[in-house]
Amino acid sequence: MTLYEKLTAEIEEAVRRGVFAVGERVPSVRQASAQHGVSIKTVLHAYALLESRGVLETRPQSGYFVRELPSAHAISPAASQLPPVASTVDVSRLVLSTLRSIRSQDATPLGSPYPDPSLFPWRQINQLANATARRHSSWNLMDDLPPGNPELIRQIARRYAENGVPVDPDEIVITVGATEAINLSLQAVAKPGDTVAVESPTYYAMLHAIERLGMRAIEVPTHPAEGIDIDALATIIREHGIAACMVMPNFQNPLGFVMSDANKERLVGLLAAHEIPVIENDVYQELYYGEARPSALKNFDKKGLVLHCASFSKSLTASYRIGWAMPGRYRREVEKLKFLNTLTTPSVPQVAVADYLRRGGYDRHLRHVRKMYRQQARLMIAMVKRFFPAGTQTSTPMGGYVLWVQLPDNVDSMLLYQVALARGITIGPGTMFSSRDAFRHFIRLNYSYPWSAQTEAALKTLGELVAGMERGKNRDYEHGR
Q1: What residue stretches are annotated with the HTH gntR-type domain (predicted)?
Q2: Is the dihedral of CA 129, 112, 434, 222 positive or negative?
């Protein structure tokens, strides 16, 4: 192997492993020459070869950058097409059992729904919480009552304003995480027995809320890159009737897409024409991979029908579970339900988070997290493509930290979950993301944790298990062979 071929292979491997992310500038010719101890001519030859392979691209007077490669293994739109049927929901037991399995200290947490806590600035926030507790040795219960801490509400409203979303602070109600915000919002707009439209696949927290309140879900076909099928939703409204709609337009879990502004505006307009409220779960709003935070449905809300829910649990700290709702015209009802359901949200965590936001540093923290997730998403996709059998397809996450994987049709993800767990690997079986036992040959993987030899070995093992099941060995696995 010549020097330039060796250098080409090293840089290509670094790109594949996510050391250099898509759109990121690689070292200049002079820097690479000094770093690798080779001549400038050798670097130029290597970069030219990488450019011809589509790995790098040249930008005039700027240098060489990692090029976005076309994904030939992306989930096809047909993978999410299901005929709409309203159904009761019973997924909580399955989800609870899978979440319990993730608590094993030795398991590789590919099935975890939670981000890696080591990336959070928990020491700073804990110090602020301790300082707050020392300043106020006894709290007045009145300080904890809804809508929540005034300074935290101000900081949240300010952050929205800085990102182009005009928000009235008086609309914000602080909750115990986004889960409570979603539950309160749904309780405010629908009653037991009502039908609620959801994406297919959908994040199981949405299904939990529907199940808890005795409602029915109707799943709407969802495009893996464009989001909920608005034409299909219009047909469902006309033929079935719905009380509400629940969606994740940004970095949807598990698909990871971002709806275009045009589709967001069209969705809000369709629902507004029928006076149907929409609950927007925007919990991953800060974890974008692009240059700016995407718009929310709230940007296009003219009638107060968008109940926007979010939290700091996925971007700042999961332990304090600070979330909020901006419920539009349903604000008074949500505040009342908050008081009736949980009475208060503890004050110390609210004040600690507000202090952290006021002091600055949140954006710097987020830039680091986004860069890590973007690199690890690319690496996870590459490893799935490398270790899993031909025909395996993946989503293309635009933010967040989860990957949706479509396995060969005859692979049962629940059986894969059980066999993988016996080998110390957790995954999210696809059936958790539907009320109708759909997506049995899909899994969700978490890539927020730092890449390690253990992670790579776990993916290799998963790939081998999937390959074995594809060859018809399901019965052997079922009998423990």
Answers
A1: 1-69
A2: positive
Query: What is the crossing angle of helices 150-162 and 347-359, to 10°?
Result: 40
Interior angle at CA 112, CA 216 and CA 178, nearest 5: 50
Same fold, 3-66 and 83-89+120-359: no
3-state secondary structure the chain: CCHHHHHHHHHHHHHHCCCCCCCCECCCHHHHHHHHCCCHHHHHHHHHHHHHCCCEEEECCCEEEECCCCCCCECCHHHHCCCCCCEECCCHHHHHHHHHHHCCCCCECCCCCCCCHHHCCHHHHHHHHHHHHHHCCCCCHHHHCCCCCHHHHHHHHHHHHHCCCCCCHHHCEEEEHHHHHHHHHHHHHCCCCCEEEEEECCCHHHHHHHHHCCCEEEEEEEECCCEECHHHHHHHHHHCCCCEEEECCECCCCCCCECCHHHHHHHHHHHHHCCCCEEEECCCCCCECCCCCCCCHHHHCCCCCEEEEEECCCCCCCCCCEEEEECHHHHHHHHHHHHHHCCCCCHHHHHHHHHHHHHCCHHHHHHHHHHHHHHHHHHHHHHHHHHCCCCCEECCCCECCEEEEECCCCCCHHHHHHHHHHCCECCEEHHHHCCCCCCCCEEEEECCCCCCHHHHHHHHHHHHHHHHHHCCCHHHHHCCC
Measured from the Cβ of residue 28, the count of other Cβ atoms closer than 10 Å reads 14
User: Alpha carbon 371 to chain centroid distance?
Assistant: 15
Q: How far apart are CA 344 and CA 346, in angstroms?
A: 6
Residue 72 has a pLDDT of 43
Tokens, residue 352: 């600690």
Low-confidence ranges of the chain (pLDDT < 50): 70-72
Please identify, in words, the CATH class of the domain defined by 83-89+120-359: alpha beta
User: 437's torsion region: left (phi>0), alpha (psi -120 to 50) or beta?
Assistant: left
Q: Which fold has domain 3-66?
A: Arc Repressor Mutant, subunit A (1.10.10)
- Beta-strand (E) ranges in 75-172? 87-88
Residue 278 is predicted with a pLDDT of 98
Quick one: tokens of 226? 């464009």
HEC per residue, 368-388: HHHHHHHHHHHHHHHHHHHHC
Residue bearing tokens 């944790």: 449
Q: Facing residues of 308 across strands?
A: 280, 326
- Residue ranges covered by each domain of the chain: 3-66, 83-89+120-359
**What is the chain's mean pLDDT, rounded?**
89
Q: Which of helix, strand or coil describes residue 52? A: helix
